[in-house]
Amino acid sequence: MTEQLIALLREHLGSFVSGEQLSRELGCSRTAVWKQIRHLKERGYEFESAPRKGYRLLKTPERLDANAIVSKRKAKLLGRSVKLYDEIDSTQNAALELVRTGAPEGTLVIAEQQTSGRGRMGRPWHSPHGKGIWMSLILKPEIPLAYTPQLTLLVAVALSRAIKYETGASAGIKWPNDLLIGGRKVSGILLETHAEGERLQHLVAGVGISVNLAQQDFPEELHSRATSLLIETGKVTDREALICAFLEQMEELYVLYHKEGFAPIRTLWEALSVTLNRPVRVNVGSNWTEGIAEGIDELGALVVRLENGERAKLFSGEVELR
Ligand code: BTX
């Protein structure tokens, strides 16, 4: 019904179509038409409405185009196949399903909107329509399962570099997976893996970037914790260009990782980190404790010198900057 309404209004682009005509052609009530128009406004469509004349479509939102991404990208392996959904529960679910049915490495799943976008530990990821980049990339690195944290750090570096390249904004990395601007989260990474024995079979790297969200596009409770590239730079960012920049940075680092191992990635990560050499609160087991984040070890774990002088290694979990 939504798609039919858009098609109808497009046919009459620039002129008014009455509510009566729309309800007749769509076979629904005028209240249903009005509700659909309201729904479209939330998705970035703009209308002029006038009593007795009806509705006139003024502007359609910027939409992502899977073919354009495939052909515009400079990366060769990553993004060679792109699946784009208008609305989906989570791109992670779609990518995990695709990889189970044999999708090759480099397949990318993107959605304009997620209805159950997820973060780590079951936390929700707010993913409104048409404003962000909500995507999941299938990777099949031949590495031991224990090396997985290294890839989280690799994705974070690629993302920070892509954001810098495309928008000029400096996003610092808070261990392990947050990209922050001015202390607020602009992007998050979620890695989900499948292993057989000690070998990693595949992983799905989920990336959420709050690109063109205005302050009012975030729920109230996120206002102090979350931000967007639009809020930080004052400019609308071309989402397709940012996706292509991410794929390019990601591929460059992925090739480097396979050639030279984790060491160069670790150096790049350290330079972008906002966690290192800072007093932090960490949860070790179920307890919160304080210390100084000293470095990253060769597996990608965060090394923290605790107040009692001992060193703790964190492979996952939470870190708060004090
Ligand atoms: P995380 O658990 O580290 O972060 C989740 C927290 O981030 C939330 O509790 C909230 O405070 C904050 N948050 C929620 N939504 C946003 C947002 N849009 N912008 C900024 N901050 C937000 C981080 O988990 C990993 C997130 C991965 C999301 C991607 S989107 C594509 C893919 N599909 C999917 O379901 N998840 C991934």
Describe this structure in words.
The protein has 322 residues and is an alpha+beta fold. It is 33% helix and 29% strand. It contains nine helices and 14 strands. The protein has helices at 2-11, 19-26, 30-42, 66-72, 91-100, 148-167, 229-233, 239-260, 263-272; strands spanning 46-50, 54-59, 81-88, 107-114, 133-139, 172-174, 178-181, 184-196, 199-209, 279-284, 287-296, 302-306, 311-314, 319-321. A seven-stranded mixed beta sheet has the order 3-4-5-9-8-7-6, with helices on both faces. Strands 13-12-11-10-14 form a five-stranded antiparallel beta sheet, with no helix packed on it. A two-stranded antiparallel sheet has the order 1-2. A hairpin with a 2-residue loop joins β10 and β11 (287-296). α6 packs across α8 (239-260). The longest helix is centred in the last third of the chain and has 22 residues, at 239-260. The protein is elongated and about 75 Å long. 38% of the residues are buried. The model has no long low-confidence stretch (mean pLDDT 93). It binds ligand BTX.
